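Exercise 3.2. Students should predict the tertiary structure of the chain below and write it as structure tokens, then compare their answer with the key that follows.

Predict this chain's 3D structure.
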Amino acid sequence: NRTASLNDASLRPDLDILSIPGQPPFQSVLAAPMRTAGRAFGAVAIYSQHPVEWTADQFRLADWLAAQCAHILAILRLQRDLRRQAALIDLSPDAIIVRKVDGTITLWGHGAEQVYGWTKAEAIGRTTHELLKTKFSRPLEEMNRHLQATGRWSGELAHTAKDGRPVVVESRW
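Answer key:
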């Protein structure tokens, strides 16, 4: 659970150190734990084919590399989880659209494709108001003030589908 080193493997014949077939054996290793929520779940190891007296700077580098690897793995896990959630959203027949505060569409569910007629490729990256020609029941500035004050807004919006049909929706921001 802490960064450790073995400077000369020949002094510890009882230990089994990683080896690569056809290559000289490793003689030294420096390993730092990767942690998540304070718990070690793996390690980053630096091997040498020669005995090494690892320096304090090398220990710090190993700790930094382990922290970076743990961070990257956490991001990859979050991305995987988000892809799974997006796949679940695609199962819904509802027109689920996720957008940034500025209105830029970041997720366009399968139900939205069915209701509005635009594909994900056509919708993602565009703004909802421009794509759907949104007509608001109240002035947009008033709706945004309410959203800022309370953290939410819900109400009816009138949109236009790709084929020109009007689509009235209950929207929640």
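Discussion points: The two ends are 45 Å apart (CA to CA). The chain has a mean pLDDT of 92.
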